[in-house]
Each structure stands twice: as structure tokens, then as C-alpha cells.
Write a structure and sequence with these properties.
Blueprint lengths: L1 H31 L3 H11 L7 H21 L3 H10 L8 E2 L7 E2 L1 H13 L18 H10 L8 H19 L14 H17 L4 H12 L14 H20 L40 H4 L12 H20 L7 E7 L14 H4 L3 H11 L9 H4 L2 H7 L2 E4 L13 E7 L4 E6 L12 H12 L5 H12 L8 H5 L2
Parallel strand pairs: 3-4
Antiparallel strand pairs: 1-2, 3-5, 5-6
Helix pairs in contact: 2-9, 3-5, 3-17, 3-18, 4-5, 5-6, 5-10, 6-8, 6-10, 7-8, 8-9, 8-10, 9-10, 12-14, 14-16, 17-18
Amino acid sequence: MVYSTLQRSQKVLAASRQVHKISAQVLERTAAEETVTSSFASFIHGVQPEHLSEVVRHRSKRMILDSIGVGLVGSTTRVFNIALRYCQLYASNAVSSVYGRKGLKLSPTLAAFTNGIATHSMDFDDTWHPATHPSGAVLPALLAASQMLPPSSKPNGLDFLLAFNVGIEVQGRLMRFSTEAHNIPNRFHPPSVVGTMGSAAATAKLLSLNVTQCAHALAIAASLAGAPMANAATQAKPLHIGNATRLGLEAALLAARGMEASPLILDDIPGCSGFSAFYGDYRPKPLPLPASSHKFLLEKQDVAFKRFPAHLGMHWIVDAAASVRNLLINYSGSFSPSLIRAILLRIPVSKYINRPFPESEHQARHSFQFNACTALLDGEVYLNSFTDGCIHRQELMELLAKVLVEHPEDNIANFDKMYGEVALVLENGDVLTGRCDTFYGHWRKPLSRESLLKKFQSNASHVLPEDKVNSIITTVENLENLSDSSQLASSL
């Protein structure tokens, strides 16, 4: 009995030594060869401002301006104030500005955290494809880091713009390694995964980390990433963006101070998950070193800017509902809910945004039914559509009770392929139908400069005077010429 146990122990020990030997061989081989992880680190370190095309500069400045605006109006929300009171418990190294709180500063990581929460507190921030919110996970980290650096090493506006685009690029590249990531998510909230990586990459660039440190920053960030979709439509969801930007910043700061992590974090190593833990069909490819012909993904794929503060999927159904509302007015001379027997929504399958009777503002922002019926009643969805008074009004409840849902096979839960359709079955049996294939603000139908500025001015004016609002617009639109990028953060 003792002998057989000893034999088994010896076999286990031998097997363990073999595993360690194989691991050592893999590490030795990949140290000499390019890996996916090393290619990303080399890109982050090596990319230069001249690699930013005019299109990329233009689009990324629009993203920065929009993100600041939604962050400023988001600083008026309850969830932001909860987070801010928490962060004020820790007052050391208070050098970084907070959205909408003139004179108040926090430590860089906590400022990034609170500003990230503000950005997503209303679900008003930009959305990309594959599905994620790219700006909110990156911009607050860069704003905080720019104020953290000593006067002698402040990055200029062009450095800031380049770092921002590095953070956006890394997110987009990682999501394109998975077909699963192209669809509306059901496991991990994407910004909490790729956003953390993007924040780490952007901060590593702004801090001028070397190639090895850039690789470690990505690997450390992977250990800090991930949040479940079950917390969508709750006050915890904005924490996903807050944590992504904060923890990515922390990952870069740790790497800068010598912390090490896996050199293969982005590679697909059978039997040992790295970043592949987040996506079951993860198939990574090296990121080529930037050359004169390099094109950022942002040049090929623009982002979507929201016209009202709700999940992106709501924008299809709102435009469809507004369309059929106009048909009913033309049909009967006015919009009268009493004429409607049933409201049929044809939407993609996505459980967390299929909410028949939402009870809170966060649930309402994630409810096809609520947004369709609100648009039917009011002709549009507004900032104040998600107040308690609007959510629980009797006429809205009566419309919600008439809603039926269908999931056509051709309506895919994918922001590049889905559509929204609203059919009104009238009491006399007639049917009126409105459909939206591409809403205004989608990357296929971008907001005009006038519309984007109008949104920014409306959002920012909730907390800033008009002269400050206009000053921020001028600063962002001329970001390349800013000698000290921390001036942008100081103006918020």
C-alpha cells in the first residue's frame, strides 16, 4: 500500500517536471520569436503621431468631445455621487480633476474611476462595432494621467491624441479576434474586458513605457478585467467603465514600477487561458508594426453617437416607433392611444434589453418596450424620459400592456446587422408599420458636426457656463496644437 502510493507520487512528480519542461521550452521559444503579445507591445511603443490620418484625428476628436459631454451630464446622476463620496474617503495625492466638480481633485486612479462612471451613468456614451463603448474606458485614464505627470514631462495635445487612438485601436483589434464578440453580448460586458486593455495600452503610451513594460501592462490589465452582463440595467453597470479605465491606468503604473506578468497573455496557448478566457472562439493574430501605410481601425469603422441616453439597440426601435407614430397621425389626424389594439415589436433576441415593465431608470434604458412606447407617446426620447415621473405615468403603462414581441430570424443581435420594426394593430383591424434599418447617429449615418455640437452643448451646459462649454469645444477641435494636454482635464 505504501509502495503503491510512493509510485503514484513519483509518477505525479515526473509528470509535473515534464509540464514545467514544456512550459520552459515554450517560454524560451517565444522569447526569441514574435508573439501576439509582443507584437501588441511593439505597436504601442512604436506608433507615432504621423501614423494618424486626418480621418482618424477628426473621428477621434469627435469621440473625445462627445465623451466629455456625456461625462459632464453624467456627473449629475445618483450613481456618480455615490461613487464620488466613496472616493473622497481617500484624499492622498489629489491631483486629478473630476467631471463637473470645479476645484475638487482626487488621486489619478480614483479620478479615472469616478469620471468613467460619469461617462456611462446614463448609457449615453459612444458605441463601436464589434460591440463596446470605446471612449469611456480610455479618456478618463488619460485625463487623470496627464495631470499626474510633473510639469517637465507633460504630454502635449498630439501625444494625448495618439495615446487615445492607441487605446481605441487595441480594443478594436482584440474584439476582432472573436466572432462571438461581434454580437450583442450575453456573458461579459465588453468594456470591462477590452476597455481595461485599451486603458492600459493608452496609458502605457502616454507614459512612454518601453516595449517590455507595455507587454506587462497588457498582461496585468487582463488579470483585472471582466464583469458579468447580469449587472446590466443596474447601478453597477457604470462601474464597469469606471473600473476599466481605472484598472487599466493602474496596470500601466504597476508595469512602470517593475511588476511583471505573462509574456503570452494575448496568445492562444492550448490548456492555459490568457485573454482567451473571455471569448470561446478567440483566434489572435499579431498586430503589425506601424508603417507609412498603417491604417487605424477607426479609419475603416466609425463609431455610433447616441441621440438619447439609452442602450444602443433602443435607437433602432425609437426611430421605428417615431415613424409609425407619424403614419398614425396622417391616418387619423392625431395620435390617440385608444385607436391602438396592439403594438408589435420585431426585435433581435437579447434577454437583458427585453424588459416589458421596467421599474427603474436603468431598466428603462435597457427596455425595447419602454423606449418604443415612449417614442409613440412623445414622438422622441429625451434626457428626462427616464425620470420616475415619466417611467410610471399611466398612459405609458397602458401602452406597455399592449406590447407583443416577435424575434424574426433575419433580425440578428448585431449592431451592424439588426433592425427595429414597430407595427400598430388598430382597433378596426388596420395595421401600420414603421421600420428602421440605420438610425441617425449610427456609423453608417453619422451625426453631423452641428448635431454633435448641439448634443455636447446640451450635456455640458448642465454643469458648466456657456463660455467654458465653448472653450472646451475649441480646445478639443485644436487638440494637436495644445502644448500641455493637462489643460483639457483642468477645464472640466
